[in-house]
Design a protein that fits this description.
By secondary structure, the chain is of the alpha/beta class. The chain is built from 25 helices and 22 strands. The strands form 5 sheets. A 7-stranded parallel sheet has the order 3-4-2-5-6-1-7, sandwiched between helices.
């Protein structure tokens, strides 16, 4: 089939979105390709369609387990075979998945978390797989200059020697020009090849407002903009507090954070999706897969850590291409808090080593053991057990993750799974020898199919009900059968997982690179300085500021952000305004001048336009009006 036929048959679309077809054709021409598409720009189709057009399977590297699982489920619903292997799966589950990738010719997609690329079991199986494409999602994770650097991504290039003639497609929604170059270098592109859609969102109006009463300003925004909204805050407690405030003021709201049970999160998200609740107050955990078209506003009540994070989160507004607003409300203390969070994010190396020891002791790992083991992880319980601040513990673990010692997965709902480890004949013999399990095993075989070939999702409550057996007894029976090597049973978990990617070693032997630490801290500081500059900037178009950050330096004023709206009131064109500012700034940077002196020095500029510009610059704190009646540039 042609790529157009594949698009229609499996996805039901008659045309591609901008740049999708170019990216697909580049890949099908065996060119290494970096695709820069904004959030919701249809990145997944760029590797899914060409993979379907060729014999063999596509390996997809992704750091987000929940996103992998969502995409696998989505592909399967379209009749396309896909499997995922990620941290937290058992050895048996991984073994079966890789076998299917090798021997089942109908499997078209193998999703992997980046640390899986490091394992010998994968590299041995890779030699026997027929791979048609290597896709790297969230490709900015490969760059230390990026905002979400993950060291396992650096190993991706190593597997290219196993599949030398297979093109690579790297995809990201946010990357500066430095990161764009770094991605191509680290992935060993044969030739630089970047295909990009502009980051500009013409329907999205960016506003920044300094306000000591942010909650009442939020209320005004919510009441004025009838429709769905998202409010981002930094901590979990605040999500409920802000949600309660909105509800008390007759704005239908709910709250969301990673500490809630998966079932509760699903219920809240679905209610918001169906407009039963209009505003979701959330931490940044509310993000993956949020593709609701009619979000009219996104408000940040705290200063984000980076332009990249802000751009992605605010970009969830106005996906239907109708007018929408991205508003950042702040006060002076918020900027101070952002810098404090930055300091906390880089704990001292002695603290990092202590947390590593505590983690190993918490899970009772002996020296030299633990590689590729996975455990459910409650960070609050862990922190209380060792009298640690949960924030410090989290940041230390994230640094250990960046150095490749552990992986902390996001919280996700992992349903219970079952797989018979003996064949049909052996199972029949077991039932004859152990009649008390016979009815239980027969019921499971009636309820679920494919149990001898792969892990199958099960529902213990359903089994208990049909067996007329207490739920606890059902769990106990499944575990008994596992002890007797009849089946493998993985019980449901709703917690994040901590995965040890190397054997336990003495904490003094943990290599915490001074260079890595320094680079990561310097880059994080630069990103924080960029977002604080965005917050304090009140003379440059917000849209231009964001596009400049991502390397689009020839953009025009948007005309609809707070800066442009204020400037439009001057009745000056962009060119006129910029030229006047270029003349004023050098004068007032050298010394303070009176209005008469300024007018006298700039005789070529009409007086009314000069005064309007001075007034605007003063109102927006670019110029300071002194008590003696002079003006000076605010350096």
């Amino acid at each position: 089939m042609t790529i157009q036929q594949i698009l229609i048959k499996y996805w039901g679309y008659s045309t591609f979105r901008p740049m999708q077809e170019d990216i697909i054709n580049s890949v099908l021409s065996n060119k290494d390709t970096l695709a820069l598409l904004p959030t919701s720009g249809g990145k997944s189709l760029c590797f899914q369609v060409p993979a379907m057009a060729r014999e063999g399977l596509c390996i997809v590297v992704s750091p987000l387990i929940a996103l992998m699982k969502d995409q696998v489920a989505n592909l399967r619903s379209r009749g396309i075979k896909a499997i995922a292997v990620y941290s937290g799966m058992t050895t048996e589950q991984i073994d079966i998945a890789f076998d299917n990738a090798v021997f089942d010719k109908e499997v078209k997609f193998l999703y992997l978390s980046p640390e899986r690329l490091l394992t010998g079991i994968f590299r041995e199986r890779l030699k026997r797989m027929k791979v048609n494409l290597l896709a790297v999602d969230e490709a900015h994770c490969i760059s230390q200059w990026g905002y979400d650097f993950r060291p396992p991504y650096l190993k991706i290039a190593e597997i290219r020697e196993y599949i030398p003639n297979v093109p690579i497609l790297a995809l990201t929604a946010t990357a500066t020009s430095i990161v764009v170059a770094d991605i191509q270098e680290k992935l060993l592109f044969k030739k630089n090849n970047v295909l990009q859609v502009s980051f500009e969102r013409k329907n999205l109006s960016y506003f920044v407002r300094k306000d000591e009463d942010k909650l009442n300003m939020l209320l005004k925004i919510a009441l004025k903009n009838k429709g769905t909204g998202i409010v981002y805050v930094r901590n979990r407690k605040k999500t409920k507090e802000v949600s309660d405030f909105l509800n008390k003021n007759k704005v239908s709201a709910d709250y969301y954070h990673a500490g809630l049970e998966h079932k509760v999160r699903d219920q809240k998200q679905n209610a918001w999706w169906r407009n039963q609740k209009y505003v979701m107050v959330a931490t940044n955990a509310f993000g993956m897969g949020i593709d609701k078209a009619d979000v009219r506003f996104v408000v940040h009540l705290d200063v984000p850590d980076s332009i990249e994070a802000y751009f992605q989160e605010s970009g969830r507004a106005g996906r239907d291409e109708k007018k929408a607003y991205a508003v950042l409300l702040y006060e002076n203390s918020d900027v101070m808090d952002a810098y404090k969070n930055f300091q906390d994010a880089f704990p001292d190396k002695t603290i990092i080593r202590k947390v590593y020891d505590c983690l190993c002791n918490f899970f009772q790992l002996a020296m030299g053991s633990g590689r590729d083991t996975s455990y459910n992880f409650n960070i609050i319980e862990f922190s209380e057990h060792y009298n640690l601040s949960s924030r410090v513990a989290y940041n230390a673990i994230k640094f250990l993750e960046k150095e490749g010692y552990v992986v902390l997965s996001e919280s996700f709902n992992e349903p219970s799974k079952l797989f018979f480890s003996i064949n049909n004949t052996e199972l029949y013999k077991f039932q004859l020898q152990n009649p008390r399990y016979e009815n239980f095993i027969k019921l499971i075989l009636r309820l679920y199919t494919g149990l001898f070939n792969d892990y199958v999702k099960i529902d213990e409550h359903d089994i208990a009900q049909k067996m007329n057996m207490p739920f606890e007894q059902t769990i106990k029976t499944l575990k008994e059968l596992m002890v007797q090597n009849v089946l493998h049973y993985d019980q449901r978990s709703d917690l994040p997982a901590i995965i040890f990617t190397s054997e336990r070693q003495e904490s003094r032997d943990i290599l915490l690179s001074d260079e890595n630490y320094k680079i990561l801290k310097e880059n994080a500081l630069k990103r924080l300085e960029a977002i604080t500059e965005y917050v304090s900037e009140n003379s440059k178009c917000r849209n231009q500021f964001l596009l400049d950050y991502f390397g689009e330096t020839n953009s025009k004023r948007c005309g609809i952000c707070d800066v442009c709206v204020n400037r439009n009131q001057l009745s000056l064109s962009e060119l006129q305004f910029d030229k006047i500012v270029e003349c004023i700034k050098p004068l007032l940077t050298v010394k303070s001048l009176s209005l008469t002196d300024i007018i006298e020095s700039l005789k070529g500029i009409p007086e009314d336009k000069l005064i309007k510009t001075l007034q605007w610059l003063t109102d927006n704190s670019k110029i300071i009006y002194e008590k003696d009646g002079t003006y000076r540039w605010n350096i």
